[in-house]
Amino acid sequence: MALPDIYTEGIASGWKVVDAAKLTAPQTMEADVAIIGSGAGGGVAAEILALAGLKVLLLEEGALRTSDSFKDMDEGRALRELYQEGAARATSDGAIAVLQGRSVGGSTTVNWTSSFRTPEPTLKFWAAEREVVGHGVDDMKPWFEKMEARLDVMLWEAQNANNSVLKRGCDKLGWEAHSIPRNVRGCWNSGYCGFGCPVNAKQSMLVSTIPEALRHGATLVHRLRVRQLQHAGDKITGAVGEALREDGRTPSGTLVTIKARHFIAAGGAINTPALLLRSQLPDPHKRLGQHTLIHPVVLSLAQMPERIDPFYGAPQSTASDHFQWKDGATGPMGYKLEVPPIFPGIGAGVLNVYSDDLRKEMAALPHTNAVLALLRDGFVEQSPGGSIRLADDGSPMLDYELSDYVWEGVKRAYLSMAELQFAAGAQRVRQAHIDASYQTSWTDAKKAIAELPLKKFRATLFTAHLMGGCAMSQNPKRGVVDSGGRHHQLANLSVMDGSVFPTSIGANPQLSIYGLVAQNATALAKQLKT
Amino acid sequence: MPIEPAEDRGLPRRDFLKVGLGFSLALTVGTAVVGCSDAAKTLSTGYVFLRPGDVELFSALTPAVVTELGAFDAAKRSKLVERTLQNIDGTCAALDLGSRQELRKLLDLLAIGPLRYSLTGVGAWNEAGIDKMQVFLARWRGSRFATLNAGGNVLVKLTSSSFYVLPESWPSTGYPGPLEYVFNAINS
To answer: CB A365 to CB B175 under 8 A?
Structure first.
């Protein structure tokens, strides 16, 4: 059964899609609105603005990769072609691995489909503590409903064995657990969400909002890196993009000049602050690229008696918030428990062992369950997050330190995950930590965890959720943009991506971005039409 | 895995201290003493990031990290090592400048003979053998210096991930490959 490729058909029907790698002469492109980045924020904004009748230019640094190239369902290809820095992006010191998408659709092309509304305590905290207006629980409800309907967000009840471990453990211990809503239409339950959905079931930006924007006359330019926004006074006057070669990294030397009435930065919480920093935009209160939040992730590995096949089936269908809001938004660090899928390549990296340890653990993969804790950073002073700075060539670097407050959360998370895995029937459990060895009982695990050094390069640390760095606040001293995403110093610049979040979300952030951007882009469309 | 004390056998404390301050400083000291020939800075044929010295390092490291390779005959093994190195090379080349520079510092440091010996206990990569390479990894990863931990981790993860994305590695992991009914349906 050959699946039709949306883009092959769309381009044949006249969609305006430009591969900048094929440009040989300098160009000027003009539009009402230029959107930089085609992920969760850029995709939603493009659809709303194009449907409002505005001429939209959607610019993406990554390549256009579509279902035709996802048919191999191959991890190596996906890591190379769909992730930032070949899936080897990390914090500047190499201590925290950063999994972030890089192709048309951004991280939505490779995420695991978990679609949570922004938790109420987070929205309330923003209003009460960060001078954010218009995004209260009641304000946001219709926007989440709208985007859930748009992207087919539905509760997913079918559990693969990996998720069943989490559910069973929570039930045994009396911990809160819930099914995860997913943005899928006609999902085949394969588990390959992270490699680009091979059947176009995941309602990523790649197959939903971007095609709709293209049907309404938007232009998509891919393999184009926007180097700089130019400004004069309180206005962005234009942007300069450099076309990239086929490799998607090296500039070809061809420059593209972009002219637009309004500019939207939507490159995500690493690349958007970097673009604004490179452009030397006004930042009178030194907020730009500060307070970058990442939901630091730690993991616990379990050997189960039953077959888990952690690579197959919807990757995430159960989560637990038992430890998330226990002490309110600002108590000791809260965390959400979920499971990740485990494929051999990334799996080997998570195991972070070698020699016979690696051989044995890889051989045990079909019986391996992993649980992860997403730590909710950025709500208290002791968790200030990280910051973005520029390398000599203007590429972004993320600095992120873990305070004692965060490490204390890591330790509790290790304990929770081990207790849960043993309650679910694990034969042995170890932390993804260089000094951890397998323990065969909860009692032994407790003792072993107490001894683990809590240090970078000893604990395996991940992030897949990048937030902050262009925080929103009505108070220009506290934010780069206002609550509507409008830049405080530049009238025709908006930021519409996860970088506007004043704290981390406390859940996988895609629906938080969709809802917020839908609301802000709708307001912007109205302003631009009058 | 036990944590080895930093002042363990065969590794002069002096050099550990230098590296403890970061690869940059160690490299400055190293190159000042030994120098780095221009020939060593050219790329290895068929690679876009790795230089000849790096290829020697990873050729020795891969069978030490991935002992699974011992299950293949010599011809197949060398083919798989080469493809692992190609993956390592591709990943390094995909890194942004900041990470690329850090990795380059690490690899340059390991390319300087006398410094390599004092830091890793290995004289020449191609004569080291699996055991010696594993001792080197254990020392670095067990060290109390974060910089050595970082270096040991990146070498292990780069190598293991680059091998286990190869389909030939999957039978040993129990990963049957792309989910069959979906793969067949969309590729028929």
So the answer is: yes
